[in-house]
Amino acid sequence: MADFDQELDASGLNCPLPILRAKKALSGLESGQVLHIIATDPGSVKDFEAFAKQTGNELTESREEGGKFHFLIKKA
Amino acid sequence: MEQKKLAIIATKGSLDWAYPPFILASTASALGYETEIFFTFYGLQLLKKDLSLEVTPLGNPGMPMPMGMDKWFPVALTALPGMQSMMTYMMKKKMAAKGVAGLEELRELCQEAEVRLIACQMTVDLFDMKPADFIDGIEYAGAARFFEFAGESDICLYI
Known about the structure:
The structure holds two protein chains of two kinds.
Chain A: E1 6-10, H1 17-27, E2 34-39, H2 44-55, E3 58-65, E4 68-74
Parallel strand pairs in A: 1-2
Antiparallel strand pairs in A: 2-4, 3-4
Chain B: E1 5-10, H1 15-30, E2 34-39, H2 69-72, H3 83-97, H4 103-112, E3 116-120, H5 121-126, E4 139-141, H6 143-150, E5 155-158
Parallel strand pairs in B: 1-2, 1-5, 2-3, 3-4
Helix pairs in contact in B: 1-4
């Protein structure tokens, strides 16, 4: 796992909450900073890809580990 | 890149149908859309301060019910007194257990994200609804006001 500046645990939350919480957390970060999101919603894998594509923030990592999904998003 | 626009008309006032407008509007905002929801007829229930929405199994063959009841339970019996409140209770319990957001929370997120919420003035008058019963920060307007925004929208949904 690469470095990150802030962590957001969205475990147990369902669509669209992980995306909404991530958006909120990103707004508090500076450009270039990285947000680490942990989620349990399987739909979040496609959702974070779509979120990054549409907002211009870069999804630098997406992986599953121990039943949880981890995402790294670098703020544009 | 020009900001995309999403226009939604919310016409239904049951617990299940309250979700799509708020889920889509809040998500669209997170994706950078400018969003408006126009609430008309039963959709106005979604703007009440006190959201006492229910879900009914009556005339709703697609609704999964506990113990597979949707497959064997006689349709006529879903009209029995207490069925609606029982199904509402079970639906809310299931939603909470699955981490689905509460409607109040989603609505607040929409307002925080500056989704514009518009109440249909005609319906408010028709049903003698009181503005005091509605949440703050909403606008009251008519069909022409909806088209002002919807006419320029990229996505327009009728829910």
